[in-house]
């Protein structure tokens, strides 16, 4: 952003780690933005908006009590309505979000580049809001269609980080750090170069959220990051085995998945 404006914002998300992630990323892309409140539910953020009168509200849609859409509806009765950015993992709410005059819609997991685009859109809007008519302040139909098309784009839906547990801690792991995922019983183990974490999301759900050019499901219980593979070999029985770089770990390839390696 060439010229950064000063502004205030509130954040609402029922996941503490996601609130932290958004807060930290905003500090990187827009240092002049002051986050005046960070809340975990709709009722709390509504009170914060009335108290602090921020310029922007980053609202999760699925929250305890009042959801993000309900918060947006309730804001219509206050004097200073902030610009609304909905932040959610569920793209089916896109049209409802824009019905509530959201200036943008961030689909989790978002990256710094996508958040920067949002901040640039907000700054452009803030610069011009007082010179435009009330009607002109509303997002045009063409802009809405463009934003919804962006949201629906598969490229924006791939996971960029995974929330997993290690002992009593909850950690955010970049997918770039993941070597492979392996399902056992009720859990899926997430293996990085030097650590192991647990998640409950089934592999059949995870594979839909991972970039197919980056992650391959080589067995019904195993997903591997392609560039973590050092080599693929067959043993004397004809079984194919993947060897990982650095760690030297061996992962079995099912017969159905052997076709993935024909061009390697």
Characterize this entry briefly.
30% of the residues lie in helices and 31% in strands. With 264 residues, it is an alpha/beta fold. Strands 2-1-3-4-5 form a 5-stranded parallel β-sheet, sandwiched between helices. Strands 10-9-8-12-11 form a 5-stranded antiparallel β-sheet, with no helix packed on it.
Question: What would your notes on this structure say?
Answer:
Residues 162-264 form the HTH LytTR-type domain. Keywords: DNA-binding, Phosphoprotein, Two-component regulatory system. It comes from Photobacterium lipolyticum. The strands form 4 sheets. A 5-stranded parallel beta sheet has the order 2-1-3-4-5, with helices on both faces. The radius of gyration is 22 Å and the shape is elongated. It has helices at 16-29, 42-52, 68-74, 94-99, 112-128, 134-137, 141-152, 203-209, and strands spanning 7-12, 33-39, 56-60, 83-88, 104-107, 161-166, 169-174, 178-184, 187-192, 196-199, 215-219, 222-225, 229-234, 240-244, 250-253. The chain has 8 helices and 15 strands. It has 264 residues and is an alpha/beta fold. The longest helix has 17 residues, at 112-128. It has 2 domains: 7-156, Response regulator (Rossmann fold); 162-261, Beta Barrel (OB fold (Dihydrolipoamide Acetyltransferase, E2P)), CATH 2.40.50.1020.
